[in-house]
Amino acid sequence: MIADVAGISCFEGGCGYFAAFIGMAGLLVGAIAGGILAVWLAHRHRRRPAA
After folding, report:
1. 1-51 per-position pLDDT tens digit
2. Residue 31, pLDDT score
């Protein structure tokens, strides 16, 4: 478990806060990666077939 490796204590809900932090960090990373992917896909140039 990630909380055990990170040394987070489960006393007074520490595990819950840690899980919420990991979830928010994943959401932020996904939003940034999704934005970069969307811009890249929108601006890539399509090669025209040789006629």
Report:
1. 666 777 777 777 778 888 889 999 999 999 999 999 999 998 887 766 666
2. 98
Whole-prediction pTM:
0.62
Rg of the chain taking only CA atoms, in angstroms? 20
Rounded to 5, what percent of the chain is helix, strand, coil? 75, 0, 25
CA–CA gap between residue 42 and residue 37 (Å, rounded): 8
Whats the size of the chain, residue-wise?
51
d(CA 23, CA 29): 10
Class of residue 15 by CB neighbours under 10 A (exposed 0-12, middle 13-18, buried 19+): middle
